[in-house]
Structures are given as structure tokens and as C-alpha cells.
Amino acid sequence: MSGAYSQLLEATISHLEDLKQKGVHYIDVSPESVNALIEPVLRKSDSADGEIRIPPQSVIHSSREDGPSIYDSQRLSSADKVSAMDQLRDEILSSNKSPELLASGANLVFGVGSVDADLMFVGEAPGEDEDREGEPFVGKAGQLLMKIIQATGLDRKKVYIANVLKYRPDTPSKSFGNRKPRKDEIETWFPFLMRQIEIIQPKVIVGLGATALEGLLGHMPTGITRLRGNWQSYRSVPVMPTFHPSYLLRNQSWAVKRQVWEDMMQVMERLNIPISEKQRGFFLRK
User: How many of the other CB atoms lie within 10 Å of CB of 113?
Assistant: First the structure.
């Protein structure tokens, strides 16, 4: 695959993902534009099974990786972890907020789960449901995430769930819906997520969607479509990128569900969680 074509494909995927996160579901595309994205090596006639594949993205350099390993931090007892989390929560509550955030009246959505968790899930930001309940992933996307977690044999109490942003982004021009966090918001709130990770010291982090990965890796040189399923790293902690549950709610494709489940099976293998034959067959068409 030529470098120019790879850059074109990558830019197209990233642009479409940004549009989808902004609520755009349909775009007009001319036949000429579609033809420009077709390269002979990817045509169905050149593939043994007739599928068009998007090449995966290998490990990318994280600007966050320059810090010391998470595991070099002092290992705290469970009681000390709880105490450290309480102190961090109080620190966030007393921190300076932007005028926009203060005007929105948003509630703190700190995190939930076990401070001794081996597995941590990181999302982008609280939504309307999470803001109301003060807990991450409690809406429809959260319900789907719980089903995914339960399918691995774990439950909400055995993992830790948090977002990069600790407050719902303000939406002054909207009467409903959520807004994708800006780069400056990610950088403002990431240090608090970093502290949570340092306290918990999970064995694996699952990054849910492009914005969460941007927070964890410091930048996103490619789209989540290419990055998912390929192990990355945040200060020595293995990071598995996968689609955000809200994407699965919008895209009911059986193939996409299978991709997310394959990502989770990689996580299970890394954590030495047994995988049954039944589990290996989830979302495979009979």
C-alpha cells in the first residue's frame, strides 16, 4: 500500500469519525470520491474471501510515555487507596473551574468500582445521565458496557471505570445531547485521571473510543478504526483501544460487535481470565 494512499485513507477515516461524534449520520459522496479511495490491492477481486480490510495501526509513540512507569509508584494498601481517592475527589471539588463549567452547573462524576481492580475502563466524559447520577456509564452506553464486562465473567464491582473529563462538557448551543471534549479540556482534566491510574495501578486499561485514547496517549495520529485491537501503552500499563459503547448503539453491525469482543478476549488473555469455547464464539455468525 502506497504511503500517499495510506495517508488519504487514514485522513478519511478520522474525518468520518469526527463527523459521527458530532451527530452527523449521512453525507453526500460522489462516485469520483469513492473511486479515489479504492486501491487495487484492496479490491474484492484481490482478496481471498472478498472482504475489504483496513490495515491495522501498530504501536504508536505516546507523549505520555515519557513519565516513569506507573508500577514504580508506591503500592498502596486498599485502605490507603480509598483514602487517596477521597483526597483526590476533594481536590477536584475545590479546584478552579472555568466560567463555562460553573455556569453549566455540572456535577462531579469521579469514578466507580474497585480500587484494587486489575482492569480499568476509561471513557471520554460524562453525559447527561452520568451528570444526573454522579456516576460514569449509567446511561444506555453504560448498560451496554456492563453487558460486555459481564460477558468476560467480571462485574462492575470488580473493575474500575472513569472518564478523562470529570464533568460533563457544557452544551450552551444545544437543548439535548452531549459534546465531544476539546483538546484543552482533555489536557486540563487528564492529570486527575493520571492520579487515579497511579493509585489503582491496574494491570490493563481499556480505552473506550478515540477521545479516551487521545487522553491516554497524548495524541491520536490515526483513527480508532485502525488503532483498535492493537496493544498500546500508558507508562508501562498495557492499553487496549476499542470502540466506545455509544458507537455500538449507533452501529448495530454484527461485525463491529465481534471486533469489540475480540478486543475484550485479548484483555482476558492478558489478565489470564479463562475463555470458554462458548465465549470464543460470541458474535460469530453461524
Answer: 20
Q: Does residue 259 form part of some domain?
A: yes
| pLDDT of 154 over the 60 cut | yes
Domain containing residue 109: 63-280
Nearest CA to 123 out of 255, 216, 57, 188 is that of 216
**Cell output for 168:** 460533563
Q: Is the dihedral of CA 94, 99, 105, 109 positive or negative?
A: negative
| Cell numbers representing residue 205 in the block | 486499561
Is residue 275 domain-resident? yes
User: Quick check: is 52 in a domain?
Assistant: no
Whether residue 241 contacts residue 56, with contact meaning beta carbons closer than 8 Å, is answered with: no
Query: Do 37 and 73 have their domain in common?
Result: no
Q: Does residue 230 lie within any of the structural domains?
A: yes
Q: How many domains does the chain have?
A: 2
Task: Give the residue carrying C-alpha cell 462485574.
Answer: 155
Comparing 61 with 79, the larger pLDDT belongs to 79
Please check whether residues 173 and 256 belong to one and the same domain.
Answer: yes
74 and 25 co-located in one domain: no
pLDDT in tens, 95-153: 999 888 988 899 999 999 999 999 999 999 999 999 999 999 999 999 999 999 999 99
Give this prediction's pTM: 0.80
Nearby residues of 70 by Cβ (< 8 Å), 6 or more positions away? 197, 198, 201, 234, 235, 236, 237
Q: How far is CA 129 from CA 58, 117, 125, 132, 166, in A?
A: 35, 24, 11, 5, 14
Q: Which pairing describes strands 232-234 and 237-242: parallel, antiparallel, or unpaired?
A: antiparallel
